Amino acid sequence: MITAIKHFGLLSMVMCTTGAESLRRLNSLLTAKSDAERERLKSLIRVAVHGDVGVTFTSRVGNSSLEMPSKDKVPLNTFVTQVFAAVTGCSRSSFENVLWELLARLMLESTYEASLLAAVINCISHSGEACSREVLLHLI
């Protein structure tokens, strides 16, 4: 499958397709995979984890539905662990969104799983103290 992924122009899980037909062929390959094969593919997707980072984003979120604390309510010395992941180019392409669905689902599932694993590792490394037991998936 790695060869097939390279054939479709995926580099670090950023889609560089040459056309909608490439996505259709990739969808055919993904549809034909068993659950075990899909899990193997998900294991190939990489994320970046940035741990113990000071919180500075609360005044820049710009999404009122998140109910993030205002900057003056974030205690000094508040730290988070962030997970960064690649995304599909659904909104920036001229292809129908349905063509991106299987790849996007694969990447989203991987991102959620990696985020939860990072949260477990973070909790263990901080001995379960304070907020190390909390997981926020708001910005995925």
Would you write up a description of this structure?
The chain has helices spanning 2-7, 20-32, 35-44, 97-125, and strands at 10-11, 14-15, 48-54, 79-84. It has 140 residues and is α+β, with helices and mostly antiparallel strands. It has one domain (2-133). Helix 2 crosses helix 4 (97-125) and helix 3 (35-44) crosses helix 4 (97-125).
Radius of gyration over C-alpha positions, nearest whole angstrom: 18 Å
Tertiary shape: elongated
How many individual domains? 1
Tell me about the largest β-sheet: 2 strands, antiparallel
- Number of helical segments with 4 or more residues: 4
Number of strands: 4
Order of helices and strands: HEEHHEEH
Low-confidence stretches: 1-17
Q: Provide the β-strand percentage band.
A: 5-15%
What quaternary form is this?
A: single chain
